[in-house]
Protein 1
Amino acid sequence: MNLLRRRACAALACAVLAPAFAKDAFRTIGWDDLLPRDWDPWADFQGAGVDLRRLSDDDPRAAAALQRLRTVWDEAPLVAALDGAAIRIPGYVVPLEATAQGLRELLLVPHFGACIHTPPPPSNQIVHVRLDKPHKSLGTMDTVWISGRLQLARASTVHGVSGYALAGLRVERYAAPPR
């Protein structure tokens, strides 16, 4: 293909694809949008007859409650209407896979320290992100906006179970939205 034809094809591709990558093409959502409206993460622990807040760490009932919590939260319900949505969401970075070129895979979480401490958030509050391009400047608990296509997809990692997957097309340092 000659140079002029390649440039024309590249210009056409940019014109066609540019709207898909514009900031406005992604719907900004918050973490509450990932929660089904009627889901109560503590419902399974109501009326248990034990005040979990008063148990010591070495109490066998505390270990059993933590295991039950992990099961309930790992299987947390997802919002089916978001499957395939082009979204933009803020969060904190929990690195998963870094290469010499930079960070390629991460968990995005809603609050500082999530997934680093026990227990991690429910799976509907953890997004497994695979970046289209590695980023060298991202580190643990950096705050970012990530834009991309969201999918319902559970994945188990060393830091917790995610309920959503995001094909990360754009990463920006976090800045609070204008009011």
Protein 2
Amino acid sequence: MLSGYHAIPNLIGLYAERIDAGDYAGVGALFAHATITSEGQDVRVTGADAVRGMYEAWTRRYPDNGTPHTRHVTTNLVLDVDDDAGTGTCRSYVTVFQSLADLPLQPIFTGRYHDSFERAEDGWRFTGRHMITDYVGDLSRHLNHAL
């Protein structure tokens, strides 16, 4: 089994791949054993179906390819892993870029993730994500609702 120092960055990368692909069921599966919260908002979403529903309600997908036309770039990972206990945390930055035919490529959001993880019999998994918004650009074509 992979060390948390390898598995956790992989999970964070899988999240970015899945959300950018418009695979909200896949995002939900990543958070099947987790709770997502958001700084300054009364948001507490737990489990695969609820997470999938949250992303389907909030994040727009475009009919040309079923994606939100975004790239989530996660950087500055600060890992704290206890492989013996099977637990870990990671603080990271996220920048979301979006591009559409009538919207030049641009950053539309920056923030931070505070994630927690545990090792299960089948590998590492998310147990929590706390999302913090830092700076907001033009989200009018990304979200189905205003922040």
